[in-house]
Structures are given as structure tokens and as C-alpha cells.
Automatic annotation (TrEMBL):
It holds the Pfam family AsnC_trans_reg. GO terms for molecular function: sequence-specific DNA binding. Keywords: Activator, DNA-binding, Transcription, Transcription regulation. This is Winged helix-turn-helix transcriptional regulator. SUPFAM superfamilies: Dimeric alpha+beta barrel (SSF54909), Winged helix' DNA-binding domain (SSF46785). The lineage of its organism: Bacteria, Pseudomonadati, Pseudomonadota, Alphaproteobacteria, Sneathiellales. Residues 1-64 form the HTH asnC-type domain. It comes from Sneathiella litorea. GO terms for biological process: alanine catabolic process; regulation of DNA-templated transcription; response to L-leucine. InterPro entries: ArsR-like_HTH, AsnC-type_HTH_dom, Dimeric_a/b-barrel, Tscrpt_reg_AsnC-like, Tscrpt_reg_AsnC/Lrp_C, Tscrpt_reg_HTH_AsnC-type_CS, WH-like_DNA-bd_sf, WH_DNA-bd_sf.
Amino acid sequence: MDRTDYRILREIQANSRISMVELSRRVNLTKTPCAERVKRLEKSGVIKGYFAALEPEAVSAGHVVMVQVQLSRTTAAELEEFNAAVQRVPEIQSCMMMAGGFDYLLKIRTRDIAAYRELLGTAISQLPHVMQTHTYVVMEVVKDEVTLSLPALPGKRMK
């Protein structure tokens, strides 16, 4: 990837609905080469998709908890089974395997604490191989970005 690719990525992250004409203008390319670069970035998996950023409160998902999960065992098969099951719980917004005193950290969004309590009993505690969970209620979301901070200078070249 070169500087132009990074400029394209910055613009698309800021506004995924930008027209190709406007994107081309902002990165100082003509429309066809700009469109070819975007297609290459999509095909190579650098651009994974496009989405709308929603206001959580407006869609009844304003309550956030972080949940530490400790599994009873962590063999490859059990980790795969847990990972697959997490994918099927839509309220789990992110799931990260951790090094340290617990195995996973989940970010969960629900309508309110009662909805989370129900989810904890019906889905989270029922995930495969869960031995213990610790829930931390988020009192205020100060920063919750989905965009990536891109380096000023590109690293290695993309094939």
C-alpha cells in the first residue's frame, strides 16, 4: 500500500457513503484509477465492508457491560467451540481472547440491566465451557471508536 491507498482509507473511514467522484477529488486521482484502488483494497480484504454507525440509545442498546470469562478448560477444540457459540449471540459486540487471569473479555450491549441479567442466565452462562464470569457495568462511554488510526507513512507494500 502507498500513501494514496492510506488517503483513500482515511476518507472512506470518515464517510463510507462518499461518491467515487468526491473520493477521487480528495485523493487527487481521476475516477477510474481511484475506483480500481478501492476494488483492490476490497478484494485484498483491507476494506472488509461498509456500515452505518447507529446511536445505541435509539435502538435500545445503550446499556454496556464488560464481562470477563474464565473457561473450565482451554484445549483447541474447546476454544473453537466457545468462539463459534459467541458468534451466535448478537448482543455480544466484541469478544477478545486475553492473556492473564481470565480467558475472554466480552463487550455486551443490551437495553438495560434487566435485559443483561436475562441474557447472562440464558446465553452467556450457557456458552460452552464457561466456568466463571465477572460482569462490569459501564457507567459512561467516553470513547468507543470503530475507525482505525492509520499511520502517517505506510508500512509494507500490498501485493
